[in-house]
Amino acid sequence: MKHGRIYLDNCVTTQPAPEVLQAMQPYFEEKFWVPGSFISTGETINDAIEVFANTVASAIWAKPSEIHFCSGGTLANNMAIKGLAAAYGKTGNHVIVSVVDYPDLLTNAAYLEKHGMEVTYLSADAQGFVNLAELKNAIRKDTFLFMTTAVNHVVGTIQPLAEIKAILDAADHKIYFHVDAGQAFGKIPLDVKELGIDTMAISAHKIHGPQGIGALYQNTGVKLGQTIHGVKRVDNLQTGGLNIALIAGFAKAVELAFTDFAATTKHLREISDYLLSSLENKIPEIELNGPRGAKRAPHNINVSIAYIEGEAITMMLDAKGITVATGSACASQGLKANYVLMAMGKNHVQAHGSMKFTVSKFTTKAQIDEVVTELAEISKELRARSPLYSATHKEK
Predict the structure, then answer these.
(1) Of the residues 227, 259, 291, which one is the last residue of a structural domain?
(2) Element (H or E) spanning 292, and its range?
(3) Of 217, 277, 331, 379, which one's alpha carbon is 20 to 30 angstroms from that of 80?
(4) Shared-domain flag, residues 239 and 311
(5) Residue 118 lies in a domain
(6) Around Cβ 285, how many Cβ atoms within 10 Å?
């Protein structure tokens, strides 16, 4: 049975929930106003933003005053990293990140290097976990910032944030702790106070909210230098106007995801486990990339299918109305091997043959059955064309 287009690229963006669209509508129509003082329209929006900030803050055990709405996770990462460098870079000149981190962090690290700071790049193991022994050894007197990606965007590895914080706390001076939680928010618990996180970036469209809105958490007492200048409308860090309707949609998406967080994540885990077992049962010579079980985010399954390339699979599935991601294209704008998989010790064949499936609250087992059936047929067809497969599978 065909189900229309099946979308399994939810790490990139998710379908907005119907309730989110409903929550946004009034702010596109009768409540299209901007924040302001002394007049009812502006005060109405002020009150609404306060409610929205409280909803988002409560999901990560933060205070509403610690939430900065902005245009998305990338801007949140930039405001935090560049802001921390501006505020504390004079007291320290050394930053630590890892080679498997999200491009937002790596490009900011390159920016800081270009502007005279030193950056240490930690390695990762075969499952994508950051090397904590290297972290301990990398800390110097002038280290002022460590940044990490809570859930790896390629293979779903959940970094041990509590262990990382303990290492940072063991230093004889303050090291600020920034977390990109784009793939973690709404997927794993994130208590910013318990974890000792100083700044953290989150995004709405990864949890069935609208595109174009996110938030930066800034712990009370942590300073951030100004990176965007202009008149304050909604927030002092991202100056200028922000779309209030998108903020309303963001808050509604958070409410939906966290009202019964256990049920939300349980569904994701059940669907992804079902996907993995189906893939392993129906497609021979398939390998899971990253950890298995609880140390992996509940929505991410990344596998390498031997003897065939992910680009070909992606295009053939797309022609059948199925959207997935390949390990090559998700790492670059071209067809280079994925840098995360290569850093984990995979070879070029494994990286190019990798497929990433990311499920959502709307994904069903019936859809998974259809995807796996189509993928099994495509894999068989492509392997029949592969000289390498033929050479290694000659009839005896």
Answers:
(1) 259
(2) none
(3) 331
(4) no
(5) yes
(6) 15
pLDDT tens column, 231-268: 888 898 998 889 999 999 999 999 999 999 999 999 99
Sheet of strand 143-149, all strands in order from the earlier edge strand to the far edge = 67-70, 214-218, 199-203, 176-180, 143-149, 94-98, 118-122
Q: Which residues pair with 286 in a beta bridge?
A: 305
Residues 285 and 197 in one domain: no
Number of structural domains in the chain: 2
How long is the chain? 396
CA atoms 23, 29, 30, 35: torsion sign:
positive
Tokens of 353: 């043959």
* Alpha carbons 199 and 220: distance in angstroms, whole number: 10
Does pTM surpass 0.90? yes
* CB-based contact 108:77 (threshold 8 Å): yes
Examine residue 396 and state whether it is found in any structural domain, yes or no: no
Q: Return d(Cα 3, Cα 6) in angstroms, integer.
A: 7
Reference 68, options 191, 182, 208, 233; nearest CA is 233
- What are phi and psi for residue 118, nearest 5 degrees? -100, 140
Q: Is residue 339 helix, strand or coil?
A: helix
In this structure, what CATH number is given to the domain that contains residue 353?
3.90.1150.10
| Domain range for 177 | 18-259
Query: Mind listing the pLDDT tens digit for each residue in 193-230?
Result: 999 999 999 999 999 999 999 999 999 999 999 999 99
Q: Which residues are annotated as catalytic?
A: 330
Q: What is the pLDDT of residues 80-95, one digit of tens each?
A: 999 999 999 988 999 9
Using CB atoms within 10 Å of the CB of residue 391, give its burial: 0 to 12 exposed, 13 to 18 middle, 19+ buried. exposed
How far separated are the first and last CA of the chain, in Å rounded?
A: 38
